Amino acid sequence: MFTYVVRRTLQAIPLLILISIILYVILNNAPGGPLAPYLQNPHITPADIERLKHNLGLDKPIWYRYGVWLWTVLHGDFGYSTSNSQPVLQAILDRLPATLELMVTSFIVSVIIGLSAGIFSAVRPYSFADYFITTFAFFGQSMPVFWFALMLQLAFAVHGIPLPGGYEIQLPSAGLSSGDGFNLGDRIDHLILPVIVLSLLSLALYSRFMRSSLLEVMKTDYMRTAAAKGLDGRTILFKHGLKNALIPVVTVLALSLPGVLGGAIVTETIFAWPGAGRMFYNALQQSDIALMMGYLLILAFFVVFSNLLADVLYAWLDPRVKYD
């Protein structure tokens, strides 16, 4: 296993370099290019543009500029953000705690509810509860995130409709500030609606995968043999069936991890959540290429890492899987 992990890690290096080349070329050839933030100034002159090109090194070939950028990145310098007026890495690290707070909470909620619903549906297939969970899953998968977020915001925050138990959500006009001191009650107040929005799609997906995988496992010979031996139903389900049923679900869960770091652009923007997703949206609007490159490159790294993590979890869940 160790040899396999080392080999996959070494293979990831040229892959990440290739991804960075593609991203660099696309972003630098977007309309306006690196000078887009400066071209918005109505008083800028052609002489100013030429001077900016020379000062920023934009008069050099793109392969040369990419080489300089890659060299600085390898030394830990991702450049300077024009939209945040600070180094790119610092801007990302400042927004990361808020993103992790929101996305980890949503991930935990969706995994617990989604897998539990999938197990319940598989144990009682074609029952009323199974049909209800299936209908809810289809509803969650087909619901447009931006529309659902706006409807929840309108119902619970604007009109003040209380949640079950009489809890009423207040929506501050300025949203949550990343510099606010930590207050548990206040954070829960801000987390409820975005977590509901982000969890809906994921838990619907997890429940469908869990139900389908567990139904297949329950039809196998070793499950029937365990039942014929007189083992308790819970023992058969959780000790013999669930571990094997989780193997295909691991892929979906592992590939969801980059989203935990990357944040949710639409949801964070609608709810004014000061996370990495909203930061990327602002950088996109202001053509902040340095910040977009740093953000997307870090995200690409976690995509590669999550795929490696999924393969390692395969070997742990299924001893038949041998990589070495």
List the helices and strands and how they pair.
Blueprint: H1 2-28, H2 36-39, H3 46-55, H4 62-74, E1 80-81, E2 86-87, H5 88-123, H6 128-142, H7 145-158, H8 184-218, H9 221-228, H10 233-255, H11 257-262, H12 265-270, H13 276-285, H14 289-317
Antiparallel strand pairs: 1-2
Helix pairs in contact: 1-14, 5-6, 5-8, 5-14, 6-8, 7-8, 8-10, 9-10, 10-14, 13-14
User: Mind telling me the CATH class?
Assistant: Mainly Alpha
Q: Which percent range describes the beta-strand content?
A: under 5%
Q: Given the helix and strand composition, which structural class is it?
A: mainly alpha
What is the multimeric organization of the chains shown?
single chain
List the helices and strands in order.
Answer: HHHHEEHHHHHHHHHH
What would the CATH topology be? Answer: MetI-like fold
The averaged pLDDT comes out at 80
In angstroms, what is the radius of gyration?
A: 24 Å
Share of helix, binned: over 70%
Number of strands: 2
Count structural domains.
1
Q: Order of strands across the widest beta sheet?
A: 1-2
Number of helices: 14
